[in-house]
Each structure stands twice: as structure tokens, then as C-alpha cells.
Amino acid sequence: MKNKDLSLRVQKYLGGELTAVEAESFKAEVAKNNELKKELELQQGIANAIMDDTPAEFLSRLNKIHNELGYSKSGPKIFSLKKVTLLAASFLVLISLGSVFVFNAFNTPSHTELFEEYYEPYDLSITTRSVVQNEISSFDKAVIKYNNGEYIETKTILKEIMVADNPNGSILIMLGISCLELNELDQAKSYFTQLVESDNAFFTQQAKWYLALCYLKEKNLTEAVAALEHIASDTGYYKTKAHQLLGGLKNN
After folding, report:
1. Domain 112-250 sits in which CATH superfamily?
2. Who is most buried in 11, 99, 105, 209, counting CB within 10 A?
3. Is the distance from CB of 194 to CB of 200 less than 8 angstroms?
4. What is the pLDDT of residues 159-217, one digit of tens each?
5. How far is it, in rounded angstroms, from Cα 174 to Cα 126?
């Protein structure tokens, strides 16, 4: 059997890629095949050396493995020292890549985590004209529901208002946030887009920010990045947050 084939079979065994039946068959063959046994001992020794030793100890152990397996300078070399070194390098690369992957996987915030970190409902601090329930307007009722986090009720009241009158910026921002909270992202984007296109002097920046967060929540990263870059290039309130969120997305 070719040395390359031996090496690949051992790597699959050590990497846990064999089924239970294949693993048992492999171990039975190791007991009968001296070449396969040497290859297994070689790769196990290298793996142990990499995991446990300092660089100096690692080199010493490589030489020891090489000698114990019966390879001499004058005799035939089933496994060359060059091969041992290459195997060691391969293990080191795999370990390094694995470490980087694990580190990033556990330390890089997901898109959902980024959304939760940067999202908070818009604070619509509007004082109602009366605390007597029968005397306050429908709009004031909607604001109270909105500030209490009762988003379904907020939507119901605001849609009734919209039937009788054109929506203003406050109505659209509350509707957009309510839909975003209820995970009705298409409707939320529609309301925020209306605000952006209306060029409302007070709510345009907020609408752009929440529209970008809608894209992030639905994992539409192309649109999210484009929207955030537009905000970051402006001089509005959300400029710094947009820069920070872009940095988080680019690390994913």
C-alpha cells in the first residue's frame, strides 16, 4: 500500500471520520499490518508532541519517534524525516486554524446579537393633554400604549387614525417600531421608507437607522451595510453608532 494512502487512512481514523465498523476494521488491520501500525504511531506521536511539548521538546521528540520507528540514515526510509516535518506543520496549521475558528465563533457577535445590542425602541416622549381616559385623543391613547410596549394595540389605534387623516411623522415612526417589535419586518420597512421619502425634518434620521436595523434583523446584510454606510457618511445623530455597527458586521 502506498505511503500516501496509509497516511490518509490514519488521518481519518484519528480525526474521527470513520464509522464504528470502519474504526474496528482499521484497528484489526493495524494489528496485522506493520506499516500501518508505524504510520499510526508516527501521527499519534506528532500530535502528542504538538499538544504537550515546548518547541525544543517537540524537536527532540520528533527525532526520538523517528529513531524508535526504526529509521536510520543508512537504511531504507518508509517515512522520511521531511515527511515527519511536513506532518508536524500540517498539525500545527490545523490546530491554529481550529483555534482561530473557535475563538471567532465564541467571541464574534452574531447578527442577532448585534441587532439586540444596537436596537432600542424610539423614545416618543409626548405628554398627553389629560390623564382622564375619556378626554384624551386617540393619538394620545396610541402614545400611551406605545410607551407601555403594547404594540398590537398601538397599531390598531394608529391605523384607525390613518383612515381619517394623513399620517404624520410620529404616527409612522410608532407604526414602524411596533411592526419591528412584532417581527412584521416588511410592514416596518414600508413605514420607515415612507418617512425617509417624505424627508421629514424631525424623523428622517431615525427612520434611516431603524430601516437599517430591519435589514439586519432579516439578515439582508447587503442592504444593511449600504444603509449603515449612508448613515455613517452623514453628520446625523446615528453616525457613530452606524460606524460601530459596521465594524461589528465586518468582523462576522
Report:
1. Tetratricopeptide repeat domain (1.25.40.10)
2. 209
3. no
4. 999 887 778 899 999 999 999 999 999 999 999 999 999 877 788 999 999 999 999 99
5. 12
| Domain spans of the chain, in order of start | 3-106, 112-250
- Interval 10-32 mean pLDDT: 81
- The x, y and z cell numbers of residue 60, run together, are 527532540
* Structure-block grid coordinates of residue 239: 453616525
What distance in Å separates the CA atoms of residue 110 and residue 31, rounded to the nearest whole number?
Answer: 48
Q: Cell match 382622564: residue?
A: 132
